[in-house]
Amino acid sequence: MTFNLKELIHQSTGKARSLHEKNVNPVFSRVLEMIGFAHEYTEGEGCYLTTTEGVRVFDALSGYGVFGMGRNHPVIRQAIQQALDLPLPNLVQMDVCLLSGMLAEKLIQCAPGDRLEHVFFTNSGTESIEGAIKFARASTGRRRILYSKGAFHGLTTGALALNGDESFREGFGDLIPGMVRTDLEDLDGIERELKKEDVAAVIFEPIRGKGVFYPEDDNVYPSIQKLCRQYGALLIADEIQSGMGRTGKMWACQHWDLAPDILVCAKALSGGLIPVGAILYSDAVYKKVFSRLDRCVVHSSTFGQNVIAMAAGLASLHVFQEEKLPERAAQRGEQLLAGLRRLQSKHELIRGVRGKGLMIGIEFGSPKSLLLKPAWAILHSAQNGLFAQAVVIQLYRNHRILTQVAGHHQEIVKLLPPLIITEEEVDAILAAFDAVLEECRKFPGPVWSVGRQLVSAAAKQTLFART
Ligand SMILES: Cc1ncc(COP(=O)(O)O)c(C=O)c1O
Q1: Is the minimum distance from the CB of 205 to ligand 1 under 6 angstroms?
Q2: What pLDDT is attached to residue 275?
Q3: Nearest 5°: phi and psi at 37?
Q4: Considering only CA atoms, which residue is closest to atom 7 of ligand 1?
């Protein structure tokens, strides 16, 4: 019998949920159902997903940020197709691969600062973080790494040790020692730690994915960089989510003119169709890690330089440049932020709007009006974050816009739309937010009754969100 993927998919369409409930992760499937997201999608193109019922959904989540250029971009598809058609020698291992050399060169050319001269390829964000931890330790001979409260760097055990949210760690036992949670805005505290001269690196997300936070004071990051240089520690920028044009510049570091010693990226680097990740790092770090002939593969990854991912990466960098995606993200981001700020002056439930480019957080807070105060209080006494979840549900249910809450126990909705979003689509998102928040003025009303359902669900188990 011949293998026919199209036919297999056709025969199984509509069974995704039952397959997952039986074989993958039934709890996740149940949570999706609880929040009204239990749909099966048959197509993804550009900014849109289509469900089995033929409903088109605007994707303001972009697969946790991987589809910066939209889903199934034709140039990426073509590059992957061409790579497959060319019977390329893949993963020879005892060779130096042409395509990874080419992609490394391009990445170095567009890297921020003047320190990044080498590239190590990986298969994911978290694997890039694992490598960065090892490189920082090997190159400084030091053990400790400072990371931010609220940070998210991935969920493998090394990256998990750098996680600022306890709930991700629960049940997984002791993690690698030496990871120190800090408030990155407390420069005195950072200096106190660095002065001990046993800190290998400070790792940070220029814009934190959980909650979309960054310092209000533009001097904070440059000051941390200066302190790192002063005390011999490295600066590691995690640009896994904020990189590749997302924030309106190719790298978020460029908003503060930073020159990290190590930069990690993944997600949008391949255009979303195949896993890829990369660690960009300085020559000084390289010389310490790969320091002798017998250490030439002291860190390696079997699939790291696979030619399909490398081809997709080359195509992706081409698309970012050709379609001016960082510039477009900056323009549409300004439009979206300005519109949301206008909504903030109209809707008392919006406490704050922040972000750069198309990485945006909308934070909600307790209303002043006597009518809504008790409704808000009921949601909060059950679990922080339920109001934002109710907004996410209504945006999806009534406006077919896929968003997410920005993290555990945060009243923040995050927007990560594809960078190809149009002016009209930005207006449509703004109109949808306006309509959902308008509904919130009614109590009892639809948003609060969604909230009430969440309260009873939360009483049984905690709702969760990633990224
Ligand atoms: C800032 C940041 N670092 C690391 C990761 C982990 O990446 P991955 O899920 O590819 O392991 C993520 C994923 O969301 C992220 O946003």
Answers
A1: yes
A2: 97
A3: -110, 20
A4: 125
In a domain, 50, yes or no: yes
Condensed to tens digits (0 to 9), the pLDDT of residues 128-142 reads 999 999 999 999 999
CATH of the domain at 286: 3.40.640.10
Task: Provide the CATH number for the domain around residue 56.
Answer: 3.90.1150.10
Same domain? For 307 and 341 the reply is no
Which of 67, 153, 416 for mutating ligand 1's site (highest number of atoms within 8 Å of CB)? 153
Percentage of the residues of the chain whose pLDDT score is greater than 90: 87
Asked which of 306, 322, 338 is the last residue of a domain, the reply is 322
Q: What is the pTM of this model?
A: 0.96
pLDDT tens digits for range 381-440:
788 889 999 999 999 999 999 999 998 889 999 999 999 999 999 999 999 999 999 999
* Residue at which a domain ends, from 299, 322, 345: 322
- The closest residue, in CA terms, to atom 8 on ligand 1 is 125
Output the CA torsion sign for 27, 30, 36, 42: positive
Same domain (yes/no): 300, 337: no
Same domain, 261 and 357: no
Whether the per-residue pLDDT at 463 is higher than 60: the answer is no
Spatial contact of 359 and 242, defined as CB atoms under 8 Å apart: yes
Query: Does 124 sit in the ligand 1 pocket, CB within 6 Å?
Result: yes
Say how many Å lie between the first and final Cα of the chain, rounded.
42
Angle formed by the axes of helices 423-440 and 446-460, nearest 10°:
80
Residues comprising the chain, all counted: 467
